[in-house]
Amino acid sequence: MKLGINLLCLAGHIDESHLPYLQRLAEIGFDHVEVPVMRGSPDHYAWLGEQLSALGLGRAQTSIVPDVDANPLSGDASVRQRGLDHLSWIQDCAEALGSETVGGPFHAPIGHFTGQGPTEAEIERGVSAHRNMSERASRGGYKLALEHLNRFETYFLNTMDQARAYADRVDHPAFGIMYDTFHANIEERDQPAAIAHLGDRMHVLHVSENDRGVPGRGQIDFAAVFRAAKAAGFDGHVVIEAFGAGLPELAAATRVWRPLFPDFETLFTESHDFIRGTWEAA
């Protein structure tokens, strides 16, 4: 298991001002960080990758579809092309950063709804786009981990039944799913059963408490989650995800308006120790 933390707890864009926090994460003993790649240039992420490498931290990435005007699922050819161009940009940045995994809901805009579930045409467009991404990822030596979200954030991919079926349709070894315990806590009746169903399609495990605060302080049974992950043969990237007082890039979609952890030092150290200990005991 490689233990990381999603840097959205710090900001939506990581720059020089965040280097002391990255140093502290390395000192605590994290194996890697998951970098939010929402804007910027590949040159910036190449610089950031060098900084992380110097600290001994591995690199992962989380990215989204920014808005409805760049939606790779769209039936409008010009909108869909902008979406595909954005997916290509995501991979440009991933390769510059040196990401081992590219995760996040890079399927549909967060908070955008059509009034129904995904159509067969939308699923086909998504499968085509993600299979092409997978081919490039395979050549680059990294994996994709598409994230399901709860029904209040997207209509496209909510449950592990949907996620497993979608991954099977993409049908590429570089393509898998980012399992997120927060979203699954809303959508699944039984998280261990959901993990067992997803099986080897799980490429990243997002550890996120039911309130998106410090893992271990809430209601999710992480011991059971980790036992199920181990039983499924998972031994990859485990990433802590907690949100701060509100990120402009995501607040409107995720409805995070209040602080969910007391301070960064508490989040970093308590989460690290809890996950390490719980994983080892599972």
Write the layout of secondary structure elements.
Blueprint (H helix, E strand, L loop, with lengths): L1 E5 L12 H10 L3 E5 L5 H13 L3 E5 L14 H21 L3 E4 L15 H21 L2 E5 L12 H11 L4 E6 H7 L3 H8 L3 E6 L14 H10 L5 E4 L10 H4 L9 H18 L1
Parallel strand pairs: 1-2, 1-8, 2-3, 3-4, 4-5, 5-6, 6-7, 7-8
* Main β sheet profile: 8 strands, parallel, barrel
Approximate strand percentage: 5-15%
* Tally of structural domains: 1
How far apart are the first and last residues' alpha carbons, in Å? 12 Å
Annotation field: number of helices: 10
Rg estimate, integer Å: 17 Å
CATH topology-level name: TIM Barrel
- Low-confidence blocks of residues: none
Under CATH at level 1, the class stands as Alpha Beta
Average pLDDT works out at 96
Order of strands in the sheet with most strands: 1-2-3-4-5-6-7-8
Protein structure class: alpha/beta
- Counting DSSP E segments of at least 2 residues, the number of strands comes to 8
